[in-house]
Amino acid sequence: MTMVEAGDWAVELPRPLILHAGEQVWIEGAAVFVRQPDGDVVRHDGDGFWLCR
Asked: Which of 22, 30, 45, 47 is positioned for an S-S bond with 37, CB 3.0–4.6 A?
């Protein structure tokens, strides 16, 4: 994936993000965070913007 949406907010990432079973994803500002099953958290920075619907 290259874009993650949460309501009216989205983050576009510079490269695809591959998610695996058991991972949790959330957005904070212009970053997408992924918590892996072992508890490690990885931050992926991108560009955040409002979605016009």
From this structure: 22
| 8-38 confidence digits (pLDDT tens) | 999 999 999 999 999 999 999 999 999 999 9
The rounded radius of gyration (Å) of the Cα atoms in the chain is 11
- Rounded distance, CA 1 to CA 30, Å? 15
pTM, rounded to two decimals: 0.88
d(CA 40, CA 20): 13
Write down the pLDDT at residue 1: 65
φ, ψ of residue 25 to 5 degrees: the values are -125, 140
d(CA 38, CA 43): 15
Find how far residue 44's CA is from the centre of its chain: 7
